[in-house]
Write a structure and sequence with these properties.
Elements (H helix, E strand, L loop, with lengths): L8 H18 L1 E3 L2 H9 L3 E3 L2 E3 L2 H10 L3 E5 L6 E5 L4 E2 L7 E4 L2 E4 L2 H13 L21 H11 L5 E2 L5 H15 L2 H6 L3 E7 L4 E2 L1 H12 L3 E10 L7 H22 L6 E3 L1 E5 L6 E2 L3 H16 L4 E3 L12 H17 L3 E2 L5 E2 L4 E3 H17 L9 H7 L9 H6 L15 H6 L5 H15 L7 H18 L2
Helix pairs in contact: 1-9, 3-9, 4-16, 5-6, 5-17, 6-8, 6-17, 8-9, 10-11, 11-12, 12-16
Length: 472
């Protein structure tokens, strides 16, 4: 479908002028000697740990990155196309708390297992990502191993590697080598992306750089994401924030291309605002939507895949009407903007602090609706039905209707069309209650995807050994 473009050519040129000035006059801080040396050898000016980048050099590096690529799942039928006309969807990521049947608590390993199962069952999600919630009952230093094992064994889709450090990313890559056969195999057919966040403003820190460089060297896809809340991590002006976001993302993209020319990368965006009364982050409002629309337009201008920062975003602490209308606002905007990868598509609650099982189901309904809504229309005039029914009749029994009634319209998974009497007889279940019930029924539908016993044994031996080495 056509993409919705809100920036004029003059505005795009002004944003171009902004990011180029930031890179060349203010520079970007890179807290890693290897990154600094790579830029120095490429002829860029390095002063201390700040790199001043030539805009022409950066533009050439951006042009070198592939405009689209494919991530491969364990199941050959599960592929995640990134870029071009494709859109891929991922669930909530990074939530330290979970919520189910009205109980908010620290997220657990069992929650992570169940959320991975939901990601496997719903075809609307192309990837489980990996950190659908933080399993706080698993030791921090080795937590990434258990998370990676879950996404590799409970699902068979492309997934997200760990990015909390270079060592964690290296562990993720080693686990992928075990499951997919070899380092050569995953370099030839990449299987994962890794989210690395800029420490905005204008700083890439050591841990993120180590994760980014390890990922890029292995031929996997770094997702280079400035996380900007206007008024806190960027100026309050959206033009200034877009210029900063582009400068931060492009500086990291250039580094990745120095490490592996032509390697897959994804430009990230996560642009919203700070509530100027409370200082709290604001998600799901007009600024979140504009950030998506503008970021998509900039990414298309440079022909690179991009990750949208939403997703079903909301600041609401409850699965209520606010959560619904804010999430629809940002999910719809991600479609209009043509996001390559839509992170936080399902389950995000309370500004991302909570992975909600019920909202996961509600967001799946929104994604399903929008996927149908934005599918190009096929014209069928059904003239034979008009001839059959004639004047003043009805089409319920027409041959055209009887041939198509099973799939002619979208059939909601969660929503109800019951009238008051029927809804009352059936227990007056609201959307939240129906979503809770659907969580249980969906988990019952989950089937463990097959994996070779020898591969599983080697994977478990690696996890056990590394868990012991890393300690608690």
């Amino acid at each position: 479908m056509p993409r919705y473009e809100v920036l004029s050519e003059a505005q795009l040129l002004e944003i171009d002028r902004g990011w180029k000035r930031i890179l060349s006059e203010i520079g970007i801080q890179f807290d890693h000697p290897d990154a600094l040396e790579l830029f120095r050898k490429a002829g860029q000016r390095v002063e201390g740990d700040v790199v001043f980048l030539d805009p022409e050099f950066v533009t050439a590096m951006v042009a070198q990155a592939p405009s689209e690529f494919t991530l491969h799942g364990r199941n050959p039928a599960r592929q995640m196309h990134v870029g071009g006309d494709w859109m891929a969807f991922a669930p909530v990521s990074g939530a330290p708390f979970s919520s189910r049947r009205g109980v908010r608590r620290e997220a657990s390993f069992a929650d992570h297992v169940d959320l991975c199962k939901l990601c496997q069952v719903f075809d609307e999600l192309d990837t489980p990502a990996s950190l659908v919630c933080e399993p706080n009952d698993v030791p921090m230093d080795s937590r990434h191993l258990q998370i990676q094992r879950n996404v590799l064994t409970l699902t068979d889709k492309p997934y997200m590697g760990a990015s909390i450090s270079g060592l964690a990313t290296a562990d993720s890559i080693r686990m992928a080598e075990i499951v997919f056969g070899s380092r050569e195999a995953i370099e030839a057919r990449p299987v994962m992306f890794v989210i690395v966040n800029c420490n905005s403003p204008l700083r890439w820190d050591t841990r993120m750089l180590e994760a980014m460089m390890t990922c890029a060297a292995a031929g996997q896809a770094p997702m280079l994401t400035p996380f900007l809340l206007m008024g806190a991590m960027s100026p309050v002006a959206i033009g200034a924030a877009l210029a900063q976001q582009t400068a931060e993302a492009f500086s990291a993209l250039a580094l990745c291309q120095l490490i592996r020319p032509g390697g897959p990368v994804i430009m990230g965006s996560f642009l919203s605002n700070t509530d100027m009364q409370s200082g709290s982050p604001g998600f799901g409002g007009p600024e979140s939507a504009l950030g998506l629309l503008c970021s998509g337009q900039i990414a298309r201008r440079y022909n690179i895949p991009w990750r949208s920062g939403g997703g079903g975003l909301t600041s609401s602490p409850a699965v209520d009407a606010q959560a619904g209308y804010e999430s629809f606002n940002t999910l719809n905007s991600a479609f209009l903007a043509g996001a390559s990868v839509v992170m936080q598509s399902t389950g995000w609650l309370e500004s991302g602090l909570v992975a909600s099982f019920e909202k996961f189901i509600m967001d799946i309904e929104i994604v399903k609706m929008l996927q149908v809504q934005y599918t190009p229309i096929e014209i069928d005039l059904a003239f034979d039905a008009h001839q059959e029914v004639g004047h003043g009749g009805h089409f319920l029994g027409a041959a055209h209707t009887l041939e198509r009634f099973r799939d002619c319209f979208y059939r909601p998974m969660l929503s109800t069309t019951e009238n008051w009497d029927r809804w009352t007889r059936n227990g007056q279940k609201d959307a939240y209650t129906r979503a809770s019930d659907l969580v249980d029924r969906t988990l019952e539908r989950w089937e463990r995807p097959s994996i070779d016993d020898g591969v599983l044994l080697e994977l478990d031996e690696f996890v056990a050994r590394r868990t012991t080495e890393l300690g608690d």
